[in-house]
């Protein structure tokens, strides 16, 4: 298990998982992300044709490319050079940077119409500087759309671990909703363990509003009956929110 210490090397962790993660996304496909979350996110993003977009934590560039096909002028950035290399080879028409979102971003102030960050913020140790940088690189009235593990999702496992004799093996060290807790998510079927920081809803809202963002809209994607018929393994989790998507606007 990944143990938290101050020298936790996110670059090394993600780089070491890049090949397996890419294989999973491209060969097996993350059906929940593709069939449930992406349509919900597209609703928040709206028309990006001709807009400048940053895909922050772009991974293997799968969604960067989808934004590109929607007509956006998109750039991707990720800490894992092995993932940006894959992305750059696969999508040569898009420019991918290597960078750590906890540091300052290598872009000028007021550059982007949209900062898109999907399934990334709960994987980084602190979001304060990241949010400040998203604000800085956005144009006035620019939009930031984030997709995160729903802050309520770990509660399901937290109570199950507390009240049942058989621990779930998930979020076992999460004892308090309000605390920021370092834990890991283990994807059994792909043998991939990744760092996760659980944070409250208030943390995700207030960090942005304190920086000058307004909340425009949120969504909590639901699985349709067609989806559940196709993938019955998701039935149990269809009763709880897995993902939270938030659209913020940069007020000036
Ligand atoms: C769960 S993946 C999501 C990838 C992509 N956005 C998607 O939805 O397919 C999380 C991504 O965040 C990246 N990441 C983690 N910590 C980061 C950091 N501090 N700075 C930049 N990227 C980071 C990882 O390398 C990985 O590609």
UniProtKB/TrEMBL annotation:
<feature type="domain" description="Methyltransferase type 11">
    <location>
        <begin position="54"/>
        <end position="146"/>
    </location>
</feature>
<protein>
    <recommendedName>
        <fullName>Methyltransferase type 11 domain-containing protein</fullName>
    </recommendedName>
</protein>
<dbReference type="InterPro" id="IPR013216">
    <property type="entry name" value="Methyltransf_11"/>
</dbReference>
<dbReference type="InterPro" id="IPR029063">
    <property type="entry name" value="SAM-dependent_MTases_sf"/>
</dbReference>
<dbReference type="Pfam" id="PF08241">
    <property type="entry name" value="Methyltransf_11"/>
</dbReference>
<dbReference type="GO" id="GO:0008757">
    <property type="term" value="F:S-adenosylmethionine-dependent methyltransferase activity"/>
</dbReference>
